[in-house]
């Protein structure tokens, strides 16, 4: 008889932690397979620093094969799951359709950009959920400043030096904070370029509405002092190739619209035919899918009940995803006779927002911090959470403190390859698929 197999779909925070724990707990009992489109785990919290030239891309890209040596890595994009036959269908990097059977399944596919029905946004905005988007934004900012320097039209120069970020949550706030520092340094290298203008928009009454008001005020103060125009209770009514129309009737000329309004579960969830809540897969407190005890879901794709706040779901954060991945692994190990099942219960330990330079806002263990102290806590947290590349990240931070940032355009990512919208995957069986 063939050995039992656990298949993990998605190598984000939840999937990576599930794979790491399972490779230790059920070694020799079951094969652990991780299906992921890329061969790396992306540490998303540091992505704004990549876009702003403070960190090199490989620093936040941790090798899956190198750090999970006892896990079989399969490169592919999962398009569907046959729950009755217990098979996963996926497309490999060369476009070939394949199938993979499983005895236990962990769905940790994560999320994609959240869309709103606003004219022009899908066509003219770019999200910030992956390495291609960060690299594109880095090149795009450099290109706009360089083009502004050669333009003889004052209106065009102003538009090319204007950058609009929609969404003042963690990602949007960090993108605006780091982006302003980056474009200011670029502008100093070109003659005749106006001071770059950054706008941060949100329909909420304050930035970082997820945090307490003291941290929100601290972040707001840093942004405004740096020159970022913070506009709360404001949103985009329409996006065009030349700029954005705000809901107050103001038209802002820009060639850069960054969409950071949040995430929604991966479209794979919709095609499973299973109950969902707020677009997320319904699971119990043990992360198991009702009616399918062999299937567990965690991270952004799962509607995990929050036992610390009865009646609510856990937030779609990396903190929850990583811990849910570990819980899912413990519960799968329990199904093989190793330990007992655990209900997922986690109290938030606090949050950290990196605002660039030596500025940050954090509330470790609910103690509000700002400035240099918050920056030290934030960087310490990132180093502790990174599963690899810590020395390289430290080296980049040290070099960035004493040397100017490298601002060359690599041209590796084209605009058409980073669309804001993510099409729903093919959920039917892939023709010609062969089982692996």
Explain how this protein is built:
With 436 residues, the protein is α/β, with parallel strands linked by helices. It is 30% helix and 24% strand. The chain has a 6-stranded mixed beta sheet, covered by helices on one side. A 4-stranded mixed beta sheet has the order 6-7-8-27, with no helix packed on it. A 4-stranded parallel beta sheet has the order 13-12-11-17. The model is unreliable at 423-433 (pLDDT under 50).
What structural class should be given to the helix and strand makeup? alpha/beta
**What would you say the CATH architecture of the largest domain is?**
3-Layer(bba) Sandwich
Q: What is the total domain count?
A: 2
Largest sheet: 6 strands, mixed
Rg calc: 22 Å
User: How are the strands of the largest sheet arranged?
Assistant: 5-2-1-9-22-21
Shape: globular
Mean pLDDT: 92
- Tell me the helix content: 25-40%
Strand count: 27
Would you spell out the secondary-structure blueprint of this structure?
Blueprint: E1 4-9, H1 13-25, E2 30-36, E3 40-42, H2 47-51, E4 61-63, H3 64-67, E5 72-75, E6 77-82, E7 87-91, E8 97-101, E9 104-107, E10 111-113, H4 121-124, H5 131-150, H6 154-160, E11 162-166, H7 170-187, E12 197-202, H8 213-226, E13 228-232, E14 236-240, E15 243-246, E16 251-253, E17 256-259, E18 263-265, E19 276-277, E20 280-282, E21 288-289, E22 292-297, E23 302-303, H9 318-335, E24 352-354, E25 360-362, E26 369-370, H10 371-385, H11 390-402, E27 434-435
Parallel strand pairs: 1-2, 1-9, 2-5, 8-27, 9-22, 11-12, 11-17, 12-13, 20-23
Antiparallel strand pairs: 3-4, 6-7, 7-8, 10-18, 14-15, 15-16, 19-20, 21-22, 24-25, 25-26
């Amino acid at each position: 008889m063939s050995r039992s197999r656990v298949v993990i779909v998605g190598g984000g925070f939840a999937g990576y932690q599930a794979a790491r724990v399972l490779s230790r707990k059920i070694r020799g009992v079951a094969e652990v397979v991780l299906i992921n489109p890329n061969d790396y785990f992306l540490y998303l919290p540091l992505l704004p620093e990549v876009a702003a030239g403070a960190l090199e891309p490989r620093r936040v890209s941790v090798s899956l094969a190198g750090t999970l040596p006892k896990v079989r890595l399969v490169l592919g994009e999962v398009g569907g799951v046959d729950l009755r036959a217990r098979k996963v269908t996926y497309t490999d990097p060369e476009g070939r359709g394949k199938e993979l059977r499983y005895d236990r399944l962990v769905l940790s596919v994560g999320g994609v950009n959240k869309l709103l029905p606003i004219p022009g946004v899908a066509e003219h905005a770019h999200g910030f959920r992956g390495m291609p988007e960060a690299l594109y934004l880095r090149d795009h900012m450099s290109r706009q400043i360089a083009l502004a320097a050669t333009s003889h039209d004052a209106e065009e120069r102003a538009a090319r030096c204007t950058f609009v970020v929609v969404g003042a949550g963690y990602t949007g706030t960090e993108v605006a904070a780091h982006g302003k520092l980056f474009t200011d340094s670029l502008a100093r290298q070109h003659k005749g370029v106006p001071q770059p203008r950054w706008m941060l928009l949100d329909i909420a009454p304050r930035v970082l509405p997820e945090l307490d008001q003291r941290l929100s005020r601290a972040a707001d103060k840093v942004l405004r002092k740096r020159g970022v125009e913070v506009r709360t209770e404001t949103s985009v009514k329409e996006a065009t190739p030349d700029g954005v129309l705000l809901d107050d009737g103001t038209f802002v000329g820009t060639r850069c619209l960054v969409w950071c309004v949040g995430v929604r579960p991966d479209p794979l969830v919709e095609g499973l035919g299973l109950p969902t809540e707020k677009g997320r897969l319904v699971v119990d407190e043990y992360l198991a899918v009702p009616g399918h005890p062999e299937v567990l879901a965690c991270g952004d794709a799962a509607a995990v009940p929050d036992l610390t706040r009865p009646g609510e779901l856990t937030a779609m954060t990396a903190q929850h995803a990583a811990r849910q991945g570990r819980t899912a692994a413990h519960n799968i190990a329990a199904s093989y006779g190793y330990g007992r099942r655990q209900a997922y219960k986690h109290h938030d330990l606090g949050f950290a927002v990196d605002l660039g330079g030596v500025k940050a806002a954090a509330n470790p263990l609910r103690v509000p911090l700002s400035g240099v102290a918050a920056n030290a806590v934030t960087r310490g947290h990132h180093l502790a959470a990174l599963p690899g590349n810590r020395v390289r990240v430290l080296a980049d931070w040290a070099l960035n403190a004493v040397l100017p940032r490298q601002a060359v355009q690599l041209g590796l990512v084209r605009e058409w390859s980073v669309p804001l919208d993510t099409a729903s995957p093919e959920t039917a069986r892939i023709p010609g698929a062969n089982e692996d």
